[in-house]
Amino acid sequence: MVTKAFTDEEFESLMAQYEYKFQKGDLVKGQVCGYDSEGVIVDIGAKTSASVPEREARIDMSKTVEQTLKKGEVYEFLIIREEDEDGKFILSHKKVAMAYAWKEIEALKDEDVTVEGTVVSVVKGGVLVEVKGVRGFVPSSHLRAKDTENIVGETIELKILSLDPAQNNFILSNKKVYSDALEETKESMFTNLEVGQIVEGEVVRITDFGAFIDIGGMDGLLPLSQMSWRWVDHPGDILKIKDKIKVEIIGIDHDKQRVSLSLKNMEADPWVEAKNKIKENDKVEGVITRIKHFGAFVEVFPGVEALLPNNEVVEYQNKNNCILNTGDKILTTIIKFNPDDRRISLSVVE
Prior knowledge:
- By secondary structure, the chain is an alpha+beta fold.
- Helices cover 20% and strands 40% of the residues.
- It folds into four domains: 18-92, CATH 2.40.50.140; 97-175, CATH 2.40.50.140; 193-266, CATH 2.40.50.140; 277-348, CATH 2.40.50.140.
- It is elongated, with a radius of gyration of 35 Å.
């Protein structure tokens, strides 16, 4: 058997093909060779196998491993575990992608630009969104639309408030996007608004005292009292987030840059029609809309309420051995009718 003699240069070149100094924490490039039950098989040129577990392969959970790391393509990987007993390296593609994503997100925050995020779930105090493959948190107070139940899956515009990659902490605001834009457009918008003007808007927030309506770049307040001629217990009874409605501008405060709106003014004033339809001493059947300590309010004409004093309520209940409740029908007599002051007094029918 003849043994070939190598020069020093040839020997070093030969050994270089077999020696490698890969270790945990190294960033390496590798070509996807295939897939197995554990994940992805990658050639990193170490003359040994390398594997990417499924949990370390996927960033976007809506995509499969095969869609994320395509066979034959070259990607960057992080060595997260050195050779095991079988001579296998364990790699992560996700950690590399996340590192690049965080770097991009930091740049976006520095530039104070608007980013798009997909709402992935509703959690206590807000929602989780995904931006560039990174999950962040949007507090409820920074959501422009308060209807979070139907927001999952939607893509919304966001501004980055704060981030801490070391703690995996990423907080965003949906409201700030509109606040920034609002400051730029408020002045020009106010010069074009007039009391009595009819505008179309979208319901963006509902509170106990009313609803906020986006009227084209700024929010106006639609108070509860201006929602309907009929009694309304809560704005949510007649409106929901994203409803498109026409409203009338009834007030403009240029100093505070506030706009007040009315929905009921879009309908005819029922008191005007009632003036021609009902009169004192008429017997009318009405529906109790609410009960107070001083009496019961009864709708005696669509959108027109009259007061049945408490002593009359008590007398009726004693006489009929019952308790009056909201929604009950009752036959009454109109005692006093002052349409100009929008007041009607009632008495129970003898």
